[in-house]
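Example 251.
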Amino acid sequence: MTTVMEIKDLCKTYVVDKRQINVLKNVNLKVDEGEMVAIMGPSGSGKSTLLYSISGMDQATSGKVRFDGTDITEVKENELAEIRLDKMGFIFQQMFMMKNLTILDNILLPAFESKKGGSREEKIRKGEDLMRKLGIIDIADNDINEVSGGQLQRACICRSMINSPKILFADEPTGALNRTTSNEVMDELVKLNRGGTTIMMVTHDSRIASRCTRVLFIVDGNIKGEFNNDPDADDRTRERALNNWLMDLGW
Ligand SMILES: Nc1ncnc2c1ncn2[C@@H]1O[C@H](COP(=O)(O)OP(=O)(O)OP(=O)(O)O)[C@@H](O)[C@H]1O
Ligand SMILES: [Mg+2]
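Predicted structure in complex with adenosine-5'-triphosphate:
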């Protein structure tokens, strides 16, 4: 297995009113290509901070994050921006879509920003193909306030995939969705993962986490435990096994 991401002694400290808050405390982690990793843990334990620090969205205080052969804590800002654009996909709740653009144009934004990925026409075709795959092609020309939450979330997935990233980061991708829609969105993420995209996602939902390959449990800025879901078990058995493990950790 090829390691796609290696995190060494990662620390993140915020300073608020001259007071230091150590949010991540020497996190060590290796992620192999093709994994789908769920990050769970209590509110405030540092899950989002971890995702931001390893995706170059926020700067770590110390430690190393090696991604696809490059230490992204050491590269210059423009190089980091390029890596993020061409090799990483993001589904973060605070990354809103642009109000004055259609859904398709929002999806295409990162493609037009990138120097790679072929001609303008090819990019448009790819955007439409992705929308078709996720069952939202009918809303291509809608404004973002003319679609449902589930459709918008699927559009976010299309946008995160438009530059064919090596890795996808998602913070609570199903958090705002009802059970049926969240299952559907999860089906799409699992399909992407089976197609070869490595995924790291934060979730509070053990049903969602049980569909990932591995689950990390973070407490107080540290990985307290790891659980490998049984790839051969059925959904219910996986969920039950994960819940038992989580209960032992005090979830
Ligand atoms: N920009 C910031 N400045 C100061 N403190 C912050 C900042 N961002 C997060 N924190 C603090 O860091 C800690 C971890 O926050 P984080 O958002 O990573 O938690 P989380 O595990 O994602 O929680 P949740 O499940 O509620 O989303 C919290 O105590 C939070 O208050
Ligand atoms: Mg969070």
